[in-house]
User: Which sequence fits this backbone?
């Protein structure tokens, strides 16, 4: 029988660290309840991104919901935010997480290839990914890969680059992460400047 207690502790620890990081971001950016929207929550998850091979696949909607509950414990839908609106918000966030997880899985497939056999650009990467899903008979994943033009190849190459750069000790640049972190730094800087007499 396999001992999964260490794995369970690691997952719980990662969940706790991610929730803490999301809480810190939402707090540092001074978002109010009325600013809980897809854009701001996507910035929050982008800000806590870590370039390891399973980050997006391990990041759950529960982490985001737990962070919201900690920052806004009394948050209830009001006015324009109906229960339907909150459910829609959480579905939209879940979709973003799923797309990033899909891109990450595609990056993992590309990363399994020797460097000299990897597709050189987004078009070739998308074609290769689609061919793999076709070969494996994974129709749903194939259809998802074919959506939005050649986006999946570009996203997979970006995810792979981030992970490989981090492994090599190089800085990684993910556009969403860079923007989210810049926003946080700007808010904190402005708040600090206002507090100086």
Assistant:
């Amino acid at each position: 029988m396999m001992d999964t207690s260490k794995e369970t502790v690691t997952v719980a620890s990662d969940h706790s660290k991610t929730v803490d990081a999301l809480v810190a971001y939402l707090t540092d950016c001074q978002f109010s309840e009325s600013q809980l929207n897809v854009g701001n929550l996507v910035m929050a998850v982008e800000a806590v991104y870590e370039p390891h091979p399973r980050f997006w696949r391990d990041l759950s909607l529960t982490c985001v919901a737990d962070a919201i509950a900690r920052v806004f414990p009394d948050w209830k839908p009001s006015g324009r935010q109906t229960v339907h609106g909150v459910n829609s918000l959480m579905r939209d966030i879940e979709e973003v997480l799923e797309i990033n997880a899909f891109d990450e899985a595609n990056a993992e497939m590309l990363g399994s290839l020797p460097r000299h056999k990897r597709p050189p650009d987004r078009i070739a990467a998308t074609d290769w990914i689609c061919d793999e899903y076709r070969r494996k008979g994974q129709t749903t994943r194939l259809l998802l890969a074919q959506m939005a033009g050649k986006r999946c190849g570009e996203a997979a190459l970006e995810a792979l680059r981030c992970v490989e750069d981090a492994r090599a000790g190089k800085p990684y640049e993910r556009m969403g992460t860079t923007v989210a972190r810049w926003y946080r730094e700007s808010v904190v800087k402005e708040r600090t400047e206002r507090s100086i007499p």
